[in-house]
């Protein structure tokens, strides 16, 4: 059954999602400030990375969920969810740049080139930047709908890169449970999009064929 919230209800939903998305950040700040963490740097690095992947998966899940439930209003949450993925990715990168290299860009760059898992994570973060910058309505109008859509398909590259970054990071500890879980979720979500695109193409071809007039001999 389709659920169609009123504009006021949708505004409340957006506010609730916004507050819920900030809870992990507030928790990290609070635990660090109150000195409750044994390894605050590790906790923050792991937490911001995990939540980046969570929000990437959630934002990718919006379209399939909208199609299955017919809740078209869900699409209005996707931008916020994507921006929170960038927010936590930016915190993840800032933690690496600040605490690991104390804002020494030259040393950071050497580390990026030296360690493959950091290289992959860095590429994924860089690719996220244009998506975040062009997330506003004014940028959609400036780029045009089709070019904007093509640009934001970078998410199909970013998500696998994020999984690969996570996989390599966990490989040193031979802990593959989480990377496999995240990888399976992302693979399923991307496969669903391929199926949706294929079905759309088939329907378009059938409609065009049906509209073609039959020539009499």
List keywords for this structure.
single chain; 217 residues; mainly alpha; 9 helices; globular
Task: Describe, in short, the structure shown.
The chain is mainly α. Helix content is 82%, strand content 0%.
Question: How would you describe this structure to a colleague?
Answer:
- The chain has about 220 residues and is mainly alpha-helical.
- Helix content is about 80%, strand content about 0%.
- α1 (about 5-35) packs antiparallel against α2 (about 40-70), α1 packs parallel to α3 (about 75-100) and α5 packs antiparallel against α8 (about 155-170).
- The longest helix has about 35 residues, at about 175-210.
- The model has no long low-confidence stretch (mean pLDDT about 90).
User: How much of the polypeptide forms β-strand, as a percent range?
Assistant: under 5%
The major β-sheet equals:
none
Q: What's the tally of helices?
A: 9
| Mean model confidence by pLDDT | 88
Helix content: over 70%
Radius of gyration: 21 Å
Structural class, from secondary structure content?
mainly alpha
Strand segment count: 0
CA distance, first residue to last residue: 49 Å
Poorly predicted parts: none
Q: In one word, what is the shape?
A: globular
- Spell the H/E element sequence: HHHHHHHHH
Give a topology summary.
Elements: H1 7-33, H2 40-69, H3 75-100, H4 105-114, H5 116-133, H6 137-143, H7 145-152, H8 155-171, H9 177-211
